[in-house]
Design brief:
By secondary structure, this protein is α/β, with parallel strands linked by helices. The chain is 26% helix and 25% strand. The chain has helices at 17-30, 64-82, 93-102, 106-111, 115-120, 123-127, 170-179, and strands spanning 2-7, 34-38, 86-90, 134-136, 144-145, 156-159, 182-185, 191-198, 202-209, 240-246, 252-258, 263-266, 269-272. The chain has a six-stranded mixed β-sheet with strand order 4-3-2-1-10-11, covered by helices on one side. A five-stranded mixed β-sheet has the order 5-6-7-9-8, with helices on one face. Strands 12-13 form a two-stranded antiparallel ribbon. Helix 7 (170-179) links the parallel strand 6 (156-159) and strand 7. This is Calcineurin-like phosphoesterase domain-containing protein. It comes from marine sediment metagenome.
Amino acid sequence: MRISLIAGDFQAPYHDPRAFELLMRIGEELQPDDLAINGDFVDWRVMSDHFPIRGERPDLAMTLRDELLTQRGLLIEMVQRIKPKRKKFTCGNHEWRLYRALSKQQNVLDLLQIPSIAEKLSVESILGLTELGFECAGEYPNGMWLFEGKPHDRNVWIEHGYFTRKNSGYMATALLTERMTNVVVGHGERLAIKWKRAVGGRHFFGAEQGNLSILAEPAGKGIYSTVPHTAPEFLDHQQGFLVLYTDRFGNFYPVPVAIFDGRTVFNGKEYEV
């Protein structure tokens, strides 16, 4: 049996430390074959055009250097504690903030035409992903296959996503229809599984992997300055991640792991931070 651990929307350093620790504890016990980080691992708020820190939360105001130190530390901790055999990383719209910020100055764009400079200013280089052994999908919104050498109808396509739907499961359903294979998507920060049975005894799933970021009151209040993010209790977000089992016949068994206030249940065991 092959075990894959898939998580995304950390938005570090605005991740929830309790949710992150639950991911670590379960990951340590699973020792998965695959670890996939599916977009928006970073926040990079200082490069955002939309969500400045508001005055009532000076405790959350961080420099880019502060963010990078936290983000690199979390990546190193994940690799050291979970010890996955294979590691994958897709970029989300938050990682795209880097390219958008760099593209605003023509002289910077000119510098990016020099391959060595472009490489140094890439997400892979800034986060140290290559040194940590991550295979990267490239620029957002690129996705990637979870497994190497498998036919597409017996594989799992992972992408962060660039659209949202009103209710949980709707994004997974839409992407499953568009990609016509098994899919895992983030971006909407919801947790859901969708199954599709097709003619010929074929089964496909679509999954939304949840998030590991700050969610509710009081932690999420005062972070954003746009509606509806100013009232996080209005957002239909769900903390969690996905464990995917693949049996020896190639069948997939996705298991969503929901997190509530630093607590979860997995494989018949309670976890609490």
